[in-house]
Amino acid sequence: MAALTADRLVNMLDQVELRVEMLREHASALEKERKVLTDTLNAVANSQELASLPTDRREEMGLTVERLQLRVKAVEVSVSTPRSSEQEAALDQVEQFLTTLVLSMTTDPDRARAVCRSYLCACSTEASGPADQRFQAAILGMHGRRPEEGEAAPRDHPVRAAAKPATRKLGGAADMQAVAQTWAQAVKPTANGKTSAR
């Protein structure tokens, strides 16, 4: 009887976990939509088209823009991830690795290309070359885990997801810049000071 109760609770928690992840995804989508709407309204407010309208029409449009801006600002959506001090330290390490990579693209592109490949391998279970063990350890540390032999970044990790479109051959600095920017996007701070990486 106890085993059945435990199984039922486990199943319930599994379902809740799926719904929590869906909630986070929807909230993140709402954050992006809010930014798009804000940027669009700001663009309209400062557009030459609006400025060229007759005074009465321009004032009417301006009031509409202000009303919509206030309504958008009234919508507050925030997705953050609680982390231990060890996980925060690991996140800082990842950001330092990526910052160093970006800076080295102009000073030593050949080495930067090799480092970028090793970072990609650290984020893939199908590595085609040596993986950077320190970078891999930092990625896994963001999950509060220690790397095991042959282990890559967790499947659902945003930095690993960022590596997927970059698995093609790196042709030059532009490719590496795109990879680094995508990675940086995966771990960048959000408006509330938290970070988007899980």
From TrEMBL:
Coiled coil feature spans: 6-40
Any GO BP annotation: protein stabilization
Protein keywords: Coiled coil
Residue numbers spanned by region Disordered: 147-171
Superkingdom assignment: Eukaryota
Alphabetized Gene3D superfamilies for the sequence: 1.20.58.890
InterPro entries attached to this UniProt entry: BAG2
GO molecular function: adenyl-nucleotide exchange factor activity; protein-folding chaperone binding
Basic and acidic residues: compositionally biased ranges: 147-159
Name of the protein in question: Uncharacterized protein
